[in-house]
Amino acid sequence: MVPPAAGLPAPEATETTRAVRALIRLSRALERRAGEISLAHYRVLMAVAQGDERASRVAERLALGKPAVSASVEALCARGLLARSGYAGDQRSIALALTPAGQDLLEEAEAAMSAELEVLAERTGRRGEILEALSLLGTAIEERAAERRRPSYDAPS
């Protein structure tokens, strides 16, 4: 069998496989545009900006292990992008908040990544459909994550 030409998917690749490959490449393209922040750190900043103040909630929302989130939080705090504070009456819990520098960096990264996505979506000639499909996919991901977080009462005891 002759190998496929460079840059082309293998002939046996399904539409779904090609879509997965495109999403992986898109992820990398967006990360390059994000500037001085990785997508992992972007996701943590975004979760905190959307109201997830506790590291355990960030881990749950992002489907990450607590050690991974703790390492990201530590790095973001060390860079002055996140701040920790205690909750009144609960010394074990720590609240997370974006610092002004964290908010600025998040906004810059989102603007740069959005601009890159606009360029790529426009190249397809179907910009609106692409952006709508990605938005719908995001909603589906959130719904599936919420389902996974719900306790299952149908499971055998």
Can you tell me the CATH architecture? Orthogonal Bundle
CATH topology: Arc Repressor Mutant, subunit A
CATH class: Mainly Alpha
Helix content: 55-70%
Order of strands, widest sheet:
1-2
Regions with little confidence, pLDDT below 50 for 5+ residues: none
Domain count: 1
Tally of individual helices: 6
The percent range for strand residues is: 5-15%
Mean of the pLDDT scores? 87
Task: Set down the secondary structure blueprint.
Layout: H1 15-33, H2 39-49, H3 55-62, H4 66-78, E1 82-87, E2 90-98, H5 100-123, H6 127-149
Antiparallel strand pairs: 1-2
Task: Please sum up the structure shown.
With 157 residues, this protein is mostly helical. It contains six helices and two strands, in the order ααααββαα. It has one domain: Arc Repressor Mutant, subunit A.
Give your account of this protein's structure.
With 157 residues, the chain is mainly alpha-helical. It has one domain (33-148): Arc Repressor Mutant, subunit A (Orthogonal Bundle), CATH 1.10.10.10. It has 6 helices and 2 strands. The chain has helices spanning 15-33, 39-49, 55-62, 66-78, 100-123, 127-149, and strands spanning 82-87, 90-98. The chain has a two-stranded antiparallel sheet with strand order 1-2. A hairpin with a 2-residue loop joins strand 1 (82-87) and strand 2. The longest helix is centred in the C-terminal third of the chain and has 24 residues, at 100-123. It is globular, with a radius of gyration of 19 Å. The model has no long low-confidence stretch (mean pLDDT 87).
